[in-house]
């Protein structure tokens, strides 16, 4: 097992923290709204216009290759694109890393690891935006990171190397790191990947508690049943465009959801009202 000493670790990896640090962002604004205007990226995204309001869990839903991950990367300023992105009516296309880190925290679909780093040090890296200059994390930062690990049942892994944990545990470590970052918008790309069925729902129940009036959660997802259960708003994507935006309100929500979902997937699904779940039609008929 990988064991570390916090004091020696902080000195040894001071360079690691310095490479993550940049200038402080100004004081956080109370509310937020994201607006995307005419976002285009090669042949993958075309003329995306989208408004995302605060206080909601918004889910991107669509088939593989429809542009969900690319749209997220454009929103986060990770790839060059044509168009404009606004946060609270302020253009963010040219913001520095520290400024973007206050607005967005991100759980990517494909995970990368840092050599010889423990689970605790990986999660506490989410506190970097609060650290001036070359300062290393304080005891308070470590306490916040430990609490996040505890929330996801990972505290017993705090001294374990990131190379020694499972795919599901790695996924939860990324989420814990994003939470301690305390950004305005939590963005997650397929966060339930590698989680077993029970943990998917336990995970989403935890994410639901993070929703608040001054924050927003944006999730790319494939499971329509998770979208039905946990999303306040669902953005359907098809071939690089926004196909439909559906709010979870009113008595016709489920009927409208199923209608749109079957339009996207060739009328292949049924909705079972008794079980409150969507099934692939051939499987549903065999039950």
Automatic annotation (TrEMBL):
A GO MF label: ATP hydrolysis activity
Ranges of residues in domain ABC transporter: 34-264
Protein family: Belongs to the ABC transporter superfamily.
SMART domains on file: AAA
Organism: Faecalitalea cylindroides
InterPro entries the UniProt entry points to: AAA+_ATPase, ABC_transporter-like_ATP-bd, Metal_Ion_Import_ABC, P-loop_NTPase
This protein's UniProt keywords: ATP-binding, Nucleotide-binding, Transport
Statement: the UniProt record of this protein carries the keyword Nucleotide-binding: yes
The name this protein goes by in its record: ABC transporter domain-containing protein
Family annotation (Pfam families): ABC_tran (PF00005)
ATP-binding found in the keyword field: yes
């Amino acid at each position: 097992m990988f064991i570390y000493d916090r004091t020696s670790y902080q000195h040894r990896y001071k360079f690691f923290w310095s490479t993550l640090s940049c200038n402080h962002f100004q004081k956080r604004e109370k509310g937020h709204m994201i607006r995307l205007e005419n976002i285009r990226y090669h042949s993958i995204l075309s003329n995306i216009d989208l408004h995302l309001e605060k206080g909601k869990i918004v889910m991107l839903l669509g088939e593989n290759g429809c542009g969900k991950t690319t749209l997220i990367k454009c929103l986060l300023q990770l790839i060059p694109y044509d168009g404009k992105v606004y946060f609270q009516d302020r253009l963010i296309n040219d913001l520095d890393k520290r400024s973007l880190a206050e607005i967005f925290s991100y759980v990517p679909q494909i995970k990368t690891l840092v050599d010889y780093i423990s689970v605790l040090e990986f999660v506490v890296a989410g506190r970097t935006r609060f650290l001036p200059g070359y300062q290393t994390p304080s005891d308070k930062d470590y306490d916040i990171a430990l609490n996040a690990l505890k929330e996801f049942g990972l505290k017993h892994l705090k001294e374990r190397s990131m190379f020694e944990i499972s795919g599901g545990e790695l996924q939860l470590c990324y989420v814990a790191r994003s939470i301690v970052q305390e950004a305005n918008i939590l963005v997650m790309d397929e966060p339930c990947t590698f989680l077993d069925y029970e943990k998917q729902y336990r995970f989403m129940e935890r994410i639901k508690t993070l929703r608040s009036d001054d924050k927003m959660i944006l999730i790319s997802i494939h499971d329509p049943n998770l979208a039905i259960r946990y999303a306040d708003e669902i953005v359907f994507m098809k071939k690089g465009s926004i196909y439909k935006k559906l709010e979870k309100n009113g008595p016709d929500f489920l009927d409208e959801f199923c209608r749109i979902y079957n339009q996207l997937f060739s009328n292949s699904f049924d909705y079972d009202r008794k079980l409150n779940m969507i099934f692939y039609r051939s499987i549903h008929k065999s039950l």
